[in-house]
Write a structure and sequence with these properties.
It is built from 7 helices and 2 strands, in the order H-H-H-H-H-H-E-E-H. It is mainly alpha-helical. Heme C binds next to helix 4, helix 6, strand 2 and helix 7.
Length: about 160
Protein backbone atom coordinates (compact mmCIF):
# COMPACT_ATOMS: atom_id res chain seq x y z
CA UNK A 1 0.00 0.00 0.00
CA UNK A 2 1.45 3.34 -1.00
CA UNK A 3 1.44 6.37 1.18
CA UNK A 4 -1.01 7.97 -1.15
CA UNK A 5 -3.51 5.11 -0.77
CA UNK A 6 -3.15 5.36 2.99
CA UNK A 7 -4.01 9.01 2.80
CA UNK A 8 -7.05 8.29 0.68
CA UNK A 9 -8.17 5.66 3.14
CA UNK A 10 -7.62 7.92 6.12
CA UNK A 11 -9.53 10.66 4.36
CA UNK A 12 -12.37 8.31 3.50
CA UNK A 13 -12.66 7.14 7.08
CA UNK A 14 -12.54 10.64 8.43
CA UNK A 15 -15.16 11.67 5.89
CA UNK A 16 -17.53 8.89 6.96
CA UNK A 17 -16.97 9.68 10.63
CA UNK A 18 -17.78 13.32 9.95
CA UNK A 19 -20.96 12.42 8.05
CA UNK A 20 -22.05 10.16 10.91
CA UNK A 21 -21.23 12.78 13.52
CA UNK A 22 -23.23 15.39 11.65
CA UNK A 23 -26.16 13.02 11.25
CA UNK A 24 -26.14 12.37 14.98
CA UNK A 25 -25.96 16.11 15.60
CA UNK A 26 -28.88 16.72 13.21
CA UNK A 27 -31.06 14.15 14.97
CA UNK A 28 -30.08 15.63 18.33
CA UNK A 29 -31.01 19.14 17.19
CA UNK A 30 -34.33 17.95 15.78
CA UNK A 31 -35.03 16.28 19.11
CA UNK A 32 -34.19 19.47 21.04
CA UNK A 33 -36.23 21.58 18.63
CA UNK A 34 -39.28 19.40 19.25
CA UNK A 35 -38.89 20.19 22.96
CA UNK A 36 -38.75 23.89 22.25
CA UNK A 37 -41.87 23.79 20.09
CA UNK A 38 -43.66 21.75 22.77
CA UNK A 39 -42.95 24.63 25.08
CA UNK A 40 -44.31 27.15 22.57
CA UNK A 41 -47.44 25.04 22.05
CA UNK A 42 -48.02 24.83 25.79
CA UNK A 43 -47.76 28.60 26.06
CA UNK A 44 -50.08 29.07 23.08
CA UNK A 45 -52.60 26.79 24.75
CA UNK A 46 -52.34 28.78 27.96
CA UNK A 47 -52.83 32.03 26.09
CA UNK A 48 -55.81 30.69 24.18
CA UNK A 49 -57.33 29.59 27.48
CA UNK A 50 -56.99 33.17 28.77
CA UNK A 51 -58.23 34.71 25.53
CA UNK A 52 -61.30 32.50 25.46
CA UNK A 53 -62.17 33.10 29.07
CA UNK A 54 -65.33 34.96 30.03
CA UNK A 55 -63.35 37.43 32.11
CA UNK A 56 -61.51 38.64 29.03
CA UNK A 57 -64.67 38.77 26.93
CA UNK A 58 -66.16 41.00 29.64
CA UNK A 59 -63.15 43.24 29.71
CA UNK A 60 -63.08 43.86 25.95
CA UNK A 61 -66.84 44.00 25.56
CA UNK A 62 -68.07 47.25 23.93
CA UNK A 63 -69.26 49.93 26.34
CA UNK A 64 -72.67 50.15 24.73
CA UNK A 65 -74.67 48.11 22.26
CA UNK A 66 -77.17 49.20 19.65
CA UNK A 67 -80.59 47.73 19.85
CA UNK A 68 -83.19 47.50 17.10
CA UNK A 69 -85.89 47.46 19.76
CA UNK A 70 -87.30 51.01 19.71
CA UNK A 71 -88.97 50.58 23.10
CA UNK A 72 -85.70 49.78 24.82
CA UNK A 73 -84.07 52.58 26.81
CA UNK A 74 -81.40 54.34 24.73
CA UNK A 75 -77.88 53.31 25.54
CA UNK A 76 -75.84 56.29 26.67
CA UNK A 77 -72.18 55.88 26.00
CA UNK A 78 -70.23 58.07 28.40
CA UNK A 79 -67.05 59.57 26.96
CA UNK A 80 -64.00 58.37 28.81
CA UNK A 81 -63.04 60.76 31.59
CA UNK A 82 -59.43 60.75 32.64
CA UNK A 83 -58.30 62.28 35.91
CA UNK A 84 -55.15 63.75 37.39
CA UNK A 85 -51.85 63.13 35.72
CA UNK A 86 -53.45 60.98 33.01
CA UNK A 87 -55.75 63.81 31.98
CA UNK A 88 -52.77 66.15 31.89
CA UNK A 89 -50.68 63.86 29.63
CA UNK A 90 -51.45 65.69 26.37
CA UNK A 91 -50.95 69.09 28.02
CA UNK A 92 -47.46 68.22 29.20
CA UNK A 93 -46.06 68.70 25.68
CA UNK A 94 -46.27 72.46 26.17
CA UNK A 95 -46.92 73.01 29.87
CA UNK A 96 -44.24 70.74 31.36
CA UNK A 97 -41.43 72.94 30.08
CA UNK A 98 -43.32 76.13 29.24
CA UNK A 99 -43.06 75.69 25.46
CA UNK A 100 -44.44 78.40 23.14
CA UNK A 101 -45.35 80.74 26.00
CA UNK A 102 -47.36 78.14 27.95
CA UNK A 103 -47.33 78.76 31.71
CA UNK A 104 -45.08 76.06 33.17
CA UNK A 105 -46.80 73.51 35.39
CA UNK A 106 -45.62 73.93 38.97
CA UNK A 107 -44.25 77.46 38.37
CA UNK A 108 -46.35 79.54 40.76
CA UNK A 109 -45.13 82.80 39.22
CA UNK A 110 -46.39 81.84 35.77
CA UNK A 111 -49.84 81.09 37.18
CA UNK A 112 -50.26 83.90 39.71
CA UNK A 113 -51.81 86.29 37.19
CA UNK A 114 -54.01 83.59 35.63
CA UNK A 115 -55.61 82.04 38.69
CA UNK A 116 -57.48 85.27 39.67
CA UNK A 117 -59.45 85.01 36.40
CA UNK A 118 -61.39 82.25 38.11
CA UNK A 119 -61.67 78.58 37.43
CA UNK A 120 -64.54 78.98 34.95
CA UNK A 121 -62.38 81.13 32.66
CA UNK A 122 -59.44 78.76 32.94
CA UNK A 123 -61.71 75.83 32.03
CA UNK A 124 -63.20 77.81 29.17
CA UNK A 125 -59.78 78.77 27.78
CA UNK A 126 -58.52 75.20 28.11
CA UNK A 127 -61.57 73.66 26.42
CA UNK A 128 -62.10 76.19 23.61
CA UNK A 129 -58.58 77.51 23.31
CA UNK A 130 -57.60 81.17 23.23
CA UNK A 131 -54.98 83.59 22.02
CA UNK A 132 -53.27 85.40 24.88
CA UNK A 133 -50.32 87.75 25.17
CA UNK A 134 -47.92 84.89 25.83
CA UNK A 135 -48.99 82.66 22.96
CA UNK A 136 -51.71 80.49 21.54
CA UNK A 137 -53.44 77.89 23.66
CA UNK A 138 -55.10 75.39 21.26
CA UNK A 139 -58.56 74.06 22.16
CA UNK A 140 -58.12 71.02 24.44
CA UNK A 141 -54.38 71.36 23.89
CA UNK A 142 -54.96 70.20 20.32
CA UNK A 143 -56.27 66.80 21.46
CA UNK A 144 -59.94 67.18 20.52
CA UNK A 145 -60.63 63.57 21.47
CA UNK A 146 -60.48 64.62 25.13
CA UNK A 147 -63.84 65.10 26.82
CA UNK A 148 -64.55 68.46 28.46
CA UNK A 149 -64.47 66.72 31.84
CA UNK A 150 -60.99 65.39 31.12
CA UNK A 151 -59.75 68.84 30.16
CA UNK A 152 -61.21 70.26 33.39
CA UNK A 153 -59.49 67.50 35.34
CA UNK A 154 -56.23 68.43 33.60
CA UNK A 155 -56.69 72.09 34.60
CA UNK A 156 -57.41 70.98 38.19
CA UNK A 157 -54.25 68.90 38.10
CA UNK A 158 -52.18 71.85 36.84
CA UNK A 159 -53.59 74.14 39.53
CA UNK A 160 -52.87 71.55 42.24
CA UNK A 161 -49.21 71.75 41.23
CA UNK A 162 -49.02 75.45 42.13
CA UNK A 163 -50.95 75.35 45.41
C1 LIG B 1 -49.38 73.48 21.92
C2 LIG B 1 -49.03 73.91 23.23
C3 LIG B 1 -50.06 73.72 24.34
C4 LIG B 1 -50.69 72.57 24.74
C5 LIG B 1 -50.52 71.17 24.17
C6 LIG B 1 -51.53 72.93 25.84
N1 LIG B 1 -51.43 74.27 26.12
FE1 LIG B 1 -52.39 75.27 27.60
N2 LIG B 1 -51.48 76.98 27.03
C7 LIG B 1 -50.58 77.10 25.97
C8 LIG B 1 -50.14 78.48 25.88
C9 LIG B 1 -49.15 79.01 24.86
C10 LIG B 1 -50.79 79.17 26.91
C11 LIG B 1 -50.67 80.64 27.24
C12 LIG B 1 -51.49 81.49 26.32
C13 LIG B 1 -51.43 82.93 26.77
O1 LIG B 1 -51.85 83.23 27.88
O2 LIG B 1 -50.94 83.74 25.96
C14 LIG B 1 -51.62 78.20 27.60
C15 LIG B 1 -52.42 78.50 28.69
C16 LIG B 1 -53.19 77.60 29.38
C17 LIG B 1 -54.01 77.92 30.53
C18 LIG B 1 -54.15 79.27 31.17
C19 LIG B 1 -55.35 79.95 30.58
C20 LIG B 1 -55.51 81.37 31.05
O3 LIG B 1 -56.59 81.88 30.87
O4 LIG B 1 -54.55 81.95 31.59
C21 LIG B 1 -54.61 76.77 30.92
C22 LIG B 1 -55.58 76.59 32.08
C23 LIG B 1 -54.17 75.74 30.00
N3 LIG B 1 -53.32 76.27 29.08
C24 LIG B 1 -54.60 74.44 30.08
C25 LIG B 1 -54.17 73.45 29.22
C26 LIG B 1 -54.64 72.10 29.28
C27 LIG B 1 -55.64 71.58 30.30
C28 LIG B 1 -54.03 71.41 28.29
C29 LIG B 1 -54.19 69.96 27.92
C30 LIG B 1 -55.52 69.48 27.72
C31 LIG B 1 -53.15 72.37 27.59
N4 LIG B 1 -53.28 73.58 28.18
C32 LIG B 1 -52.34 72.03 26.52
C33 LIG B 1 -50.15 76.09 25.15
C34 LIG B 1 -50.55 74.78 25.22
Amino acid sequence: MSDEQMNDQTFGRLFIIMILAMSVLTVLLMYLASFASDDVNTRLDERNAVENSDALADRIAPVGTFSADATAAPVVVEPVVLVGEEAYASCAACHAAGIAGAPTTGDAGAWSSRIPQGIATLYEHAINGYQGDAGYMPAKGGNLALSDETVKAAVDYMLEQVQ
